[in-house]
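Encode chain A's predicted structure.
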Amino acid sequence: MTLTVSRPHQGEFAWSVTIAPDVARDEAAAGQIQEVIAGAESGDAVQLWIEQAADHDDAFAADLGFDPYRDLWRMQRPLPAPRATIATRAFVPGADDDEFLAVNNRAFHWHPEQGGLTAADLAERMAEGWFDAEGFRLHERGGRLAGFCWTKVHPDETPPAGEIYAIAVDPDFHGQGLGKPMTLAGLDHLSDRGLTEGFLYVESDNDPAVATYHRLGFDHRSTNRAYRRIVE
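Encoded structure for chain A:
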């Protein structure tokens, strides 16, 4: 298989290359990455993602001039989980867009992919075949959107699994204990779909989130590692 090469429209990188788990870290892969570097301009930042990274992948990346800077953990647990203790409703496209974007961008102002989401970005994601408004759970308090849990089903996994794709609580509602029940609300939806495995991705250095997910029965299963190189 070939590598995935993209030009992100968010964040610092001019180019991003992703190596899937079934792609060999060999001369052919290295050659494709070198072609991307050769096509970049001086001063461009190039990102390399290695999915399900192993120790030897650091050496592969280093040989190409990349330094590791970010680990994204996949954490997983069996379903069903304990039921949520808060009420949620489905996202309504067109009616909830603006409020969702406002909460998302307040909560993820620091995040290189989820932060700075625009109406066009949201429309693009809602146009994907995996989008299901019922799996996009919203929790409201006092007539305001307090938090959301956006899920995604992966029928190609064995067994089919459900992902907590994006979850956040509006900063105005921090400290009210919403993180755990919002996660459980997403898992409820996935379990009700008949799925028996639930997973999510979390920054490895986000200690509060990692601790919360451990308490909810999630275990660290694999690591996607990101590397960066500045083209000279």
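The first strand starts at residue 4 and ends at 6.
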